[in-house]
Amino acid sequence: MKIEPLTPIIGAEIQGLDAAALSSAEFDALFQAFTDHSVIFLKGQRALTAEEHSAFAQRFGPIHVHPASRGRPADIPGAMTMRTHEESEVAAGNRWHSDVSCDELPPQASILQLHDLPDNGGDTLFSSMYAAYDTLSERMKRYLDGMTAFHSGEEPFSHLFKFQRQDGSQPWPESHHPIVRKHADSGRPALFVDREFTKSIDDLPKDEGRALLQFLFSHLERVDFQCRFRWQENDIAIWDNRCVLHHAIWDYWPQERSGRRMSVVGEQPAAWSLVADCHQPVPTRLTR
Ligand code: SIN
Question: Which residue, by CA, sits nearest to atom 6 of ligand 1?
């Protein structure tokens, strides 16, 4: 197994592993790389069957079923076809987001394998929410301490993607999550807001909340927190939604890009506390 970081902040490519046939020791090493780099890219893979993809995802934890698929019978629960083509009106993931952050238990890992690629384009960007937090001023960190935000699936799911709920009258998920969450494995603080799902900040006047969110959205999209992945056929990307935002670039229309994604249920986001959690930022050359 060979691990090659893409940047010092986020992302690593991994060669020499077969995702469908990992020993326990190999999975442990892969999980450590996932924790260390926040998003990893498995190179040199063959196309996984949906069963193999599901079995691989379950090594990380129980499968997360997207709200749009809940209540729908499925051979492989949680397997999502990701396909964008000439007739598509929207492309999944074409905005900065953490997958389904509106859920009460938002996904931890998302595991995407792409099988068909456009001639060029269709890269995916990933941004480190550890770096986004660490580079805030101490005053801003104090201001955010203990704050929560409201995440809702209504706008993206009903209006952007025009999904129909399978389970009828249930509303799309809505949740209040800490703005700074403590990562369950690394113990590090990460910003946890995104343009797709985070709609407002709790306990602030509307205008103040909106201005703060706009600042956080533009801050967390800084290019020096990011890596950019250029896909090859059957590559597998595994990102950690607890500390990473991602953005799939739709620059290849009218060509097609397709694959399959499976996600893994995460824990209820826990608040980072400046008082209880004594954090030494990981040294980076990033400046404020
Ligand atoms: C997504 O899962 O949000 C889409 C990622 C991609 O297609 O690159």
Answer: 248
